Amino acid sequence: MSLRIVVTVKYVPDATGDRHFADDLTVDRDDVDGLLSELDEYAVEQALQISENSDDDVEITVLTVGPEDAKDALRKALSMGADKAIHVEDDDIHGTDAIGTSLVLAKAIEKAGYDLVISGMASTDGTMGVVPALLAERLGVPQVTLLSEVSVEDGTVKGRRDGDAASENLEASLPAVVSVTDQSGEARYPSFKGIMAAKKKPVESWDLSDLDIEAEEVGLEGAYTTVDNAAERPARTAGTIVKDEGEGGKQLAEFLAGQKFI
């Protein structure tokens, strides 16, 4: 018996860099270094652990949608231990929102073939966290999201979702979509052997025509959501030092009374 796992990953701007919007109010991905989203590393790690703990033959495919440089994210996942990669690249995808992205991913997943889809809990640039649920809806399969622990056994995916007051044990029959949190286990570092092996692993490149998607269904034109305006965050100003000589509490209360809180 074999298990086909597809891990969706995203190439995102480095959070330590100067991130900003381009003139069309999309995220500028040209003037800042990019990398594999840290939250997606947890998804790759969980796929690898499922493979290592399984008696079945497991094939792990990493899938991304993005520009040419997004291959760097795929190479990172391959060097961690994934078997192969798929890169969906098309100029008409530029500006696609989460709903459009879920369409492209779903079509690519169906084309690739799958038993289990694993995603991170959110991307570190958009941080919306809705794509796994959208994927499950488009694929017509169960979703088990925000898991701190995940395993597969006898055609069933099982996991634990940790909340503030309680934990839930969940399961779903395969095929299914799951997402994992940053509490699911530290992602491994690629070894030198893994980095060298990744150079020989297959990376397929697909465009919209390969997925039977019309340009009007994605991109800025097909987006259900748009950014109306954007402004840089104001620079931080110097704080106020309060010397407590018996009136510190009063001064603090007066300061807070004059602030506006959302």
UniProtKB/TrEMBL annotation:
| UniProt keyword list | Electron transport, Transport
The record's section on InterPro entries has: ETF_a/b_N (IPR014730), ETF_b (IPR012255), ETF_beta_N (IPR033948), Rossmann-like_a/b/a_fold (IPR014729)
Which GO CC terms are listed, alphabetically?
cytosol
Q: Where in the sequence is the signal peptide annotated? A: none
Which positions fall inside the Electron transfer flavoprotein alpha/beta-subunit N-terminal domain?
24-215
Which Pfam families does UniProt cross-reference here? Answer: ETF
The Swiss-Prot or TrEMBL record lists the needed cofactor(s) as: AMP; FAD
Query: Single GO molecular-function term?
Result: electron transfer activity
Record keyword Transcription regulation present? no
Q: What family does this belong to? A: Belongs to the ETF beta-subunit/FixA family.
- Name the job this protein performs: The electron transfer flavoprotein serves as a specific electron acceptor for other dehydrogenases. It transfers the electrons to the main respiratory chain via ETF-ubiquinone oxidoreductase (ETF dehydrogenase).
Q: Which PANTHER family match?
A: ELECTRON TRANSFER FLAVOPROTEIN BETA-SUBUNIT (PTHR21294), ELECTRON TRANSFER FLAVOPROTEIN SUBUNIT BETA (PTHR21294:SF8)
Q: How does it assemble?
A: Heterodimer of an alpha and a beta subunit.
Protein name stated in the entry: Electron transfer flavoprotein subunit beta
Taxon lineage:
Bacteria, Bacillati, Actinomycetota, Actinomycetes, Kitasatosporales
